[in-house]
Automatic annotation (TrEMBL):
<keyword id="KW-0408">Iron</keyword>
<dbReference type="InterPro" id="IPR027443">
    <property type="entry name" value="IPNS-like_sf"/>
</dbReference>
<keyword id="KW-0479">Metal-binding</keyword>
<protein>
    <recommendedName>
        <fullName>Non-haem dioxygenase N-terminal domain-containing protein</fullName>
    </recommendedName>
</protein>
<dbReference type="Pfam" id="PF14226">
    <property type="entry name" value="DIOX_N"/>
</dbReference>
<feature type="region of interest" description="Disordered">
    <location>
        <begin position="1"/>
        <end position="74"/>
    </location>
</feature>
<dbReference type="InterPro" id="IPR026992">
    <property type="entry name" value="DIOX_N"/>
</dbReference>
<feature type="compositionally biased region" description="Low complexity">
    <location>
        <begin position="30"/>
        <end position="74"/>
    </location>
</feature>
<feature type="compositionally biased region" description="Acidic residues">
    <location>
        <begin position="309"/>
        <end position="318"/>
    </location>
</feature>
<feature type="domain" description="Non-haem dioxygenase N-terminal">
    <location>
        <begin position="87"/>
        <end position="125"/>
    </location>
</feature>
<feature type="compositionally biased region" description="Polar residues">
    <location>
        <begin position="1"/>
        <end position="12"/>
    </location>
</feature>
<feature type="region of interest" description="Disordered">
    <location>
        <begin position="303"/>
        <end position="327"/>
    </location>
</feature>
<dbReference type="GO" id="GO:0046872">
    <property type="term" value="F:metal ion binding"/>
</dbReference>
C-alpha cells in the first residue's frame, strides 16, 4: 500500500469517533399508586383517534427469500455480454474458472490457523500500515487484512496457499473488470491493487452487517461449501446461495462511479449468514477485494474515444455506456484515501456513502 498511509492515527486524527453520551436526565416518575388501568385507557383513547387507514407495522420485517445469483460461465464465448447482463443486480456467480477447490480449502485452513495464534502474535506478526494488519477491536469479529502477497512480519508464518489463492482470485477479478470496461464503455484501469480480507465469526454471535467496510471495485468470495450470504444492494437486502465451487462476485462503489452510475453495487462485503444450523463452529470468510491505491482519485471514466478529460471544470459530459446519447456526470471526483478512511470508520452501510458525491442533477 502507499507509504503515505504510515501512522494514520497521526495523519488522520479520527474526527469521526464518538464521545460518551452524558448521563440521562432524570424524568418525572409515575406516581407509585397509578394503576395499569389508566395506562390502558390512555392507549385505547390514542388508538381510537388514529385514522382508519393506518395499520400498525409488524415488529419485524420478514427476512428476504434466498435466491440463486445470476450465473456466468467464464468459458462462455459471449461472457462479456453475460457479465454485463448479470451485473445489473450488482452481483453474480462465476463458474468454469481456473481456481481449484483444493487450493481454496488449503487457503481456508491457513486462514483458520491465524485466528488460533496468541493475541500478542496476532498484533505483532502483520503490517500496520492501514488498512493492512490485524483488527481485534471487536473480539467477536476479528479480522486480518493482507496485501496480494499475504506479507507478514514473522518468519514463522508461511502463508503459501493463501498467497497463491489470492493471486488466482486476483487474475479472475481483473478479467471480469476488463469485461465490464468493454461492455459498459469505461476505460480499463491500470492502477488496481488487491486485498485479502479474512474474518471469523461464531454463529449467532454477531449481526449480519458487522465488520468494517473498505471500498472496492469488485469483491470475490469462493464458495467452498453450501453457504448463504446476505448483502445490502441498491435495491435492498438480498440473501443468496451460490453454487459450490463458484465465485461470488459483488460490484463495489468504485465500479459504480467508474461506470457513471450504470452499474448497481453492493454496500460492503457479502456476509455469511450465521446461526442457521448449517454452519461449523467457526465461519471463515475470505474476501479478495480489488481496490485502488490510497493516493488515487475516483471519478467516472470516459468511454473510449469520448472527448474531454472527465475532470470537473472540463468537458462535463460522458456518453452513456454506448447508448448513443450524452449525459452529465453523475458523480464528482474525490480522493480515494479520504473516502476510504471515512467509510472504514463510520461503516456507512445503511446510508449510501456515495450520496455526498452525486451531482445535484442526479
Amino acid at each position: 500500500m502507499a507509504s503515505s498511509t504510515h501512522n494514520q492515527q497521526q495523519h488522520h486524527p479520527n474526527p469521526y469517533g464518538t464521545t460518551a453520551a452524558p448521563p440521562p436526565t432524570p424524568s418525572t416518575q409515575p406516581h407509585p399508586h397509578s394503576t395499569s388501568d389508566a395506562a390502558a385507557d390512555a392507549l385505547s383513547h390514542l388508538l381510537q383517534r388514529l385514522p382508519p387507514s393506518l395499520s400498525i407495522p409488524n415488529r419485524r420485517s420478514s427476512p428476504p427469500s434466498t435466491t440463486s445469483p445470476p450465473l456466468v460461465s467464464l468459458s462462455d464465448p459471449n461472457r462479456t455480454l453475460s457479465i454485463l447482463s448479470a451485473s445489473q443486480l450488482g452481483y453474480f456467480q462465476l463458474t468454469n474458472h481456473s481456481i481449484s477447490p483444493e487450493l481454496a480449502r488449503s487457503a481456508e485452513s491457513e486462514s483458520l490457523s491465524l485466528f488460533n495464534l496468541p493475541l500478542d502474535q496476532k498484533e505483532t506478526s502483520f503490517p500496520k500500515n492501514w488498512p493492512l494488519g490485524f483488527d481485534g477491536e471487536d473480539t467477536e469479529d476479528e479480522s486480518f487484512c493482507l496485501d496480494s502477497s499475504c506479507s507478514t512480519e514473522s518468519a514463522e508464518l508461511s502463508l503459501t496457499s493463501l498467497r497463491e489463492f489470492t493471486g488466482e482470485m486476483e487474475k479472475v477479478g481483473l478479467e471480469v473488470i476488463e469485461a465490464l470496461s468493454c461492455a459498459v464503455g469505461f476505460e480499463n484501469p491500470s492502477r488496481v491493487c488487491s486485498l485479502m480480507w479474512i474474518s471469523d465469526g461464531s454463529p449467532g454471535n454477531k449481526p449480519v452487517m458487522s465488520g468494517k467496510f473498505f471500498p472496492y471495485v469488485v469483491g470475490l468470495q469462493y464458495q467452498i461449501r453450501c453457504q448463504k450470504y446476505s448483502m445490502l444492494t441498491d435495491s435492498g437486502w438480498v440473501s443468496v446461495l451460490p453454487q459450490v465451487d463458484s465465485v461470488l462476485f459483488t460490484l463495489g462503489d468504485i465500479a459504480q462511479v467508474w461506470s457513471n452510475g450504470n452499474l448497481k453495487k453492493v454496500r460492503g462485503r457479502a456476509t455469511p449468514v450465521l446461526g442457521d444450523g448449517n454452519n461449523s463452529p467457526h465461519c471463515i470468510s475470505m474476501s479478495v477485494l480489488l481496490t485502488l491505491p490510497l493516493d488515487s482519485t475516483v471519478s467516472s471514466l470516459l468511454p473510449r474515444g469520448a472527448a474531454g478529460d472527465g475532470e470537473e471544470g472540463g468537458d462535463n459530459e460522458a456518453q452513456d455506456g454506448g447508448a448513443g446519447k450524452r449525459k452529465e456526470r453523475r458523480f464528482h471526483s474525490f480522493p480515494f484515501e479520504d473516502y476510504a478512511w471515512r467509510v472504514y470508520h463510520e461503516r456507512l452501510l445503511l446510508k449510501d456513502p456515495l450520496d455526498r458525491y452525486r451531482s445535484p442533477e442526479t
